[in-house]
Amino acid sequence: MKLIIQIPCLNEEATLPQTIAALPRHIEGIDEVELLVIDDGSTDRTVEVARERGVEHIVRLTNNKGLASAFQAGLDACLKLGADVIVNTDADHQYPGHEIPRLVAPILAGQADMVVGDRGVDEVAHFSWTKRRLQAAGSWVVRKVSGTGVADATSGFRALTREAALRINIVSEFTYTLESIIQAGKKRMAVAHLPIAARETRPSRLISSTWDYVKRSAATILRIYAMYEPFKVFVLTGTLLLTGGVALGLRYAWFWAQGEVARAAHLQSAILSVLLLILGFQTLQWGVVADLIANNRKLIEDLLYRIRKMELGERGRG
4 pairs with which residues across the strands? Predict the structure, then answer.
């Protein structure tokens, strides 16, 4: 049983030594514990520091590709290195390394495919009131969309089984945290969470402003949900358009019954009603097409999963 702890890094030479020092090298139930650093185009001594601290594996990206790409690159490398369990943690020493044995315990017990560390965002003292409310609201939306019970959807402290890593395909360019949970929920993986104590760190480099974070997170959630539930999205949108068209049509019919003057004064209602009805019917048609495409995507994902296993020499595994 091999566990690899992956650490995405971007110019983390200052905090990486503390992060590595806090990581366990021996865990009950695990035969091998190895470290992997994903260098996301760092321009400082991140790679040299990692080597000096005994990191066994380093994946270097030629330029800064973003946290989501770094996370996926780490998963791919861990799979090729034979990891049975993969733990992801941040290089800023935010997450407690000594909690990793507890984080992987549900996986070792066969109770979970993915485990997410819950920072208790409602009570984190170094988060602003606005950030606490936004984190809680975002996690609530992700729970509803994914059908999981994860209380802290943006936590990067998480463990995955090999099978879960093989089935995760990150397509977002912003962050992996929300997308991976939604994918796990839609693919019927067992997702667990447990409370952890997070440390105060420097301001996030992923977020340029609160508004930018909300906008990009909402776009990510909507995009991933639409990938897995396109029929629901298009049917809901089409129904709203049809409802608006019918309502305006009935409104114009009432004015039409009042006489020529009222009929001419509200002609724009009739025009808008026709436009909404046309758009509504078209959206419902797009929903049928999108649902067919989604079914095809599921077949492609299954094919990709099988190809990955063949490449890794696991035809009879799992």
Answer: 34, 86
Give 114's strand partners. Answer: 160, 191
The CA distance from 243 to 235, in Å, is 12
pLDDT in tens, 128-151: 656 667 777 778 888 888 888 888
Structure confidence at residue 115 as a pLDDT band (50, 70, 90): very high
What is the amino acid identity at position 191?
A: V
> Which residue reads 């939604």 in tokens?
182
Single-letter amino acid code for the residue at 194: L
Output the CA torsion 248→254→258→264 (10° steps). 20
- Which of 112, 105, 127, 100 minimizes the C-alpha distance to 5? 100
Strand 114-118 and strand 158-161: the pairing is antiparallel
Tokens for 240? 């709203």
Average pLDDT over residues 231-236: 92
Mean pLDDT for all residues in the chain: 87
Alpha-carbon separation of residue 225 from 143, 152, 185, 279 (angstroms): 12, 18, 11, 22
Mean pLDDT, range 180-199, rounded to an integer:
89
Q: Give Cβ neighbours of residue 187 (< 8 Å, ≥ 6 apart).
A: 167
pTM of the model: 0.82
Distance CA(251)–CA(269), nearest Å, equals 8
- Taking the C-alpha atoms of residue 162 and residue 106, their distance in angstroms, rounded to an integer, is 14
Question: Is beta strand 114-118 parallel, antiparallel or unpaired with respect to 57-61?
Answer: unpaired
Handedness of CA 108, 112, 113, 117 (dihedral sign): negative
